[in-house]
Design goal:
Blueprint (H helix, E strand, L loop, with lengths): L5 H22 L3 H12 L2 E2 H8 L3 H13 L3 E6 L2 E6 L1 H14 L1
Antiparallel strand pairs: 1-3, 2-3
Helix pairs in contact: 2-5
C-alpha cells in the first residue's frame, strides 16, 4: 500500500484540528452554554450554585454541562457528595475570547 506524503498527512491533521475546533465552537454558540463558560471563568461552581444564578432547573444545567464536558471545555471534580465544575485550559481560552467579543 502506498504511503501518504508528509504534506498530505499534515493537511489531514490540520483538517482534523479544524473540525475539532469547529465542533467546540458550536458547543458554545448556545447562549446558555456560553453563559456557563463565562460563569466558570470567574470560579468553579456546583450545579446548585449554577441553578441559583441562572434560574434554570438542575436537569437542564446538567445537560449543558455534559455537552461541555464531552467537548473538553469543562471538568467535573467531586468534593464529597457535590460535583464542582471548572474550565479546562481550552475552556479558559474560549472564555477569554467570549469576554473579548462581548466587551
Amino acid at each position: 500500500m502506498p504511503r501518504k506524503s508528509t504534506k498530505s498527512a499534515s493537511g489531514e491533521q490540520r483538517l482534523k484540528q479544524l473540525q475539532q475546533a469547529s465542533s467546540r465552537l458550536k458547543l458554545v454558540s448556545d447562549p446558555t452554554r456560553m453563559l456557563l463558560v463565562l460563569m466558570l471563568a470567574d470560579s468553579e461552581r456546583s450545579i446548585g450554585s449554577i441553578c441559583d444564578v441562572m434560574n434554570v432547573s438542575p436537569p437542564a444545567v446538567s445537560y449543558h454541562l455534559v455537552l461541555l464536558r464531552l467537548g473538553g471545555i469543562v471538568l467535573p471534580q467531586r468534593q464529597g457528595k457535590q460535583v464542582f465544575y471548572s474550565l479546562t485550559e481550552f475552556g479558559e481560552e474560549l472564555a477569554q475570547v467570549a469576554k473579548d467579543l462581548t466587551g
